[in-house]
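Example 3.2
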Amino acid sequence: MSRPDPLRILCIEDEADFRTELVEELEALGYQAFGAESGEAGLAVLEALPPASVSCVICDVMLPGLSGLEMVSRLRAHPAVLKSAPVLLLTALVGREDMLSGLRAGADDYLLKPVDLTLLQVTLENRLQRLEDMRQAGAPAGLEVSPDVLRQLSRRETEVLALLGKGKRSGEIARDLTISEHTVRQYTKELYRKLRITSRVDAARIAIGLNLA
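Structure, written as tokens:
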């Protein structure tokens, strides 16, 4: 998508080589990227930036000092970060409870390390474009799904969404709802289409935001 002014992205990563690679890759894609080696250093970078000027934050979960999970709420509250800015967490391994903790803290997505830079690029473009689409449609900041779309969900789709929000897998959802795994996958596919999302993490974040999980 076209960007007349470079969007600012903050990268908080304690591995120096990867942090440098990440910043260089983002700048090559046309973003203005800032690197920080810790949560505290990331907050210091934000203090030097104008209000509402950071469009996205990429943050490692395992950091010296403040952890990535502890950083999420601070990032969300910082005046330099747009209220609707995506927060992407990087992690070498994520379990269900870790993922839910991050989403409840306000993170938007997880990317597994080592990070596939092409996947990172696509994730960024999709999230930032979705936010722009919702802004133009007049949707409230921080909610990427309009009320009209939510009203289109069937009762069963809403039930599946709620269980995805609890981190449940297809087999568990099938048992809870007494339906087949194939049927769960069909409902999940339909949810992805209606909500314009591409992953279970997206679905879980939406469910948590709507207090379904």
